[in-house]
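Throughout our pipeline, every protein is held as a single compact record rather than as scattered files. The record that follows is passed on verbatim for readers who wish to inspect the format.
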Amino acid sequence: MNKAIFRLAVIDDAEEINSVSTHLGYQKLSENQASEKLLSLLNSEADQIFVAELKGKIIGWIHLFYARRLASNDFYEIGGLVVNPEYRGQGIGKNLVKFATSQVTKEVRVRCNETRLESHLFYKLQGFKSTKSQRVFVK
């Protein structure tokens, strides 16, 4: 297998990012919606989107967003990480996390659904430590 390239996303990646996203259960957006959403994130100083590209095709992405806090230290949080199932188990997710975290200077956090045990193990293997459990309340 050729080596994947890890880089910042660009607006031309919108449709392929949208397609890869469906592999984790995200709803497929229209081409317009996908472009508008990505453009908004690319223009945000608080958001960074990185992709894994292989042979000109996007096979994974990671989204980091900057979380500012009034009474504690600011940090980055992983807002999403998706790898096309055809390429899972080949180090793509690991290298996306490694690349993305090397691009920022603050602590990086991630939240996982408590039922996603594979994700917990994945992040532990990337050096993340579980620090607390939470419940999410939506109004």
Notes: The helical segments are 14-21, 31-42, 92-102, 117-125. The chain has a mean pLDDT of 94.
